[in-house]
């Protein structure tokens, strides 16, 4: 008995000797078997990865409990990339030590680094009294020198003085410099027309 059939693998028509024959040749049979075996392995790997994936919160808790952290643990705790941690290590900002090829950071050293950064960020913040004798928080990052405003906004110093006076904007005197809030200047002149690079 001869039956016309289409090969399950390559799609070509062939003459089969039984109704159960699915492939036109032994080669197609083998290729189909290998393809199905590969697909099965891939599915098993996907399922395995899903089962072994640890939730983010659990990873965070595990990292917090470690006395000695790996680079990936530090990145997780600080919510930064591993390349950022590597850069801090190379620059010497973050204390570390090596065991063969592994880089480890003590939990206390990471906390000390964060503490130092927090202190540095508040160095420029001072409590001062304004012209109304009120105590205000002064942070240089929030203010322009008066001489900076004309350079940023491409206007004359006289124009800046005139606008500040007409709008009733307060100037803060620190030493020999006068400062004015960036937010107030932006309210008058809009976004700066150029950026000045610090020396």
How would you describe this protein?
- The protein folds into three domains: 3-51; 56-121, Orthogonal Bundle (Arc Repressor Mutant, subunit A); 126-189, Multidrug-efflux Transporter Regulator, Chain: A, Domain 2, CATH 1.10.1660.
- A hairpin with a 5-residue loop joins strand 6 and strand 7 (135-139).
- The protein has a three-stranded antiparallel sheet.
- With 199 residues, it is of the alpha+beta class.
- 9% of the residues are buried.
- The chain has eight helices and ten strands.
- The protein has helices spanning 26-52, 56-65, 71-78, 82-91, 107-121, 148-153, 157-167, 182-189, and strands at 3-6, 13-16, 68-69, 97-99, 102-106, 125-129, 135-139, 143-145, 172-174, 177-181.
- It starts with a strand and ends in a 10-residue tail after the last helix.
Named at the architecture level, the CATH assignment of the largest domain is Orthogonal Bundle
Percent range of helical residues: 40-55%
Can you tell me the number of structural domains?
3
CATH class wording of the largest domain: Mainly Alpha
The main sheet orders its strands as 3-5-4
Could you report the average pLDDT, rounded to the nearest whole number? 81
| N-end to C-end Cα span | 93 Å
Per DSSP E runs of 2 or more residues, the count of β-strands stands at 10
Rg, nearest Å: 35 Å
Report the β-strand fraction as a percent range: 15-25%
Number of helices: 8
SS content category:
alpha+beta
Q: Report the principal-axis shape.
A: elongated
What's the CATH topology label of the largest domain? Arc Repressor Mutant, subunit A
Order of helices and strands: EEHHEHHEEHEEEHHEEH
């Amino acid at each position: 008995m001869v039956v016309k059939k289409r090969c399950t693998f390559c799609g070509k028509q062939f003459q089969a000797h039984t109704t159960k024959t699915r492939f036109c040749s032994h080669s197609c049979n083998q290729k189909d078997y290998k393809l199905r075996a590969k697909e099965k392995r891939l599915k098993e790997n996907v399922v395995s990865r899903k089962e072994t994936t640890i939730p983010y919160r659990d990873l965070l808790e595990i990292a917090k409990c470690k006395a000695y952290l790996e680079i990936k643990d530090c990145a997780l705790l600080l919510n930064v990339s591993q390349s950022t941690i590597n850069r801090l290590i190379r620059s010497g900002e973050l204390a570390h030590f090596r065991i063969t090829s592994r880089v480890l950071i003590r939990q206390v050293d990471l906390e000390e680094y964060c503490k130092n950064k927090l202190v540095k960020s508040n160095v420029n913040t001072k409590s001062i009294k304004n012209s109304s004798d009120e105590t205000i928080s002064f942070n240089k990052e929030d203010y322009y020198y008066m001489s900076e405003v004309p350079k940023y906004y491409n206007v004359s110093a006289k124009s800046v003085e005139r606008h500040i006076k007409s709008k009733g904007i307060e100037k803060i005197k620190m030493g020999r410099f006068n400062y004015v809030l960036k937010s107030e200047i932006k309210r008058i002149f809009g976004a700066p027309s150029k950026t000045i690079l610090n020396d």
